[in-house]
Amino acid sequence: xxxxxxxxxxxxxxxxxxxxxxxxxxxxxxxxxxxxxxxxxxxxxxxxxxxxxxxxxxxxxxxxxxxxxxxxxxxxxxxxxxxxxxxxxxxxxxxxxxxxxxxxxxxxxxxxxxxxxxxxxxxxxxxxxxxxxxxxxxxxxxxxxxxxxxxxxxxxxxxxxxxxxxxxxxxxxxxxxxxxxxxxxxxxxxxxxxxxxxxxxxxxxxxxxxxxxxxxxxxxxxxxxxxxxxxxxxxxxxxxxxxxxxxxxxxxxxxxxxxxxxxxxxxxxxxxxxxxxxxxxxxxxxxxxxxxxxxxxxxxxxxxxxxxxxxxxxxx
Length: 316
Hints:
Layout: H1 2-11, H2 20-23, H3 27-40, H4 50-53, H5 62-66, E1 83-93, E2 106-115, E3 125-126, E4 128-136, E5 139-147, E6 153-154, E7 163-164, H6 175-182, E8 214-219, H7 233-237, E9 245-252, E10 262-270, E11 275-276, H8 278-282, H9 291-297
Antiparallel strand pairs: 1-2, 1-10, 1-11, 2-4, 3-6, 4-5, 7-8, 8-9, 9-10
């Protein structure tokens, strides 16, 4: 029995993916470590009870903005987007744009598709979203999160609507979590993109970084599921095969109020099968870049970028 227990423990010996030694690795090596962790146990995590969800309102949001590496810090829980599915992806650049760094294309990315809260089978409302990271040689990854709306959609089809790093305002039921986030950042509905433009996949710095104001992830229509409940959504997601185009990626160069133009700049394509993952649900981390960092570089965008609450610096 002791030998069997030892074998089980050994089989779940996850690689750490946050140390200075790890960050020095190549993008390919880091992507393989992350996905190997994801494949160790392909059973999804369990949703938190309503009581345990209250922990969200007690923990600091600063680690979400500042943690280095690609795994959740310490014993931190993933209260939102608790259960999902993971795949390795590449960013297929289409050219015809001036954006720099990873926007020029990258081959070693990790995507996680999930629902923000537990769905109910007798209700059409689901709240889908995406975490996306691309690894870079010898340095930290670039990350973003994207959703359709904080209020969700009236469909079980994960690919029913576009996602964006500028998320819709949601509804009154989202007010408590908005207030929570607003204690740390002003622009609670957006995450920044400037970090994606500063270095390419090899870690080579860009002399004059250029980044878009907003990204929109548009489903191609090739991957579609039922609008009504037929099975757990993760069972839909794991049918997605290697070589699938998840989204067409459109970039808006500046706010529409300033005459911004949107251009189809890339496609997000899987380079592995999509899998459920206990480690992915509990430990895979996607840092949120504060939108204020983008606005510090492009202050002319600020007046057209929604904010929540009063003006203040990021409290981290």
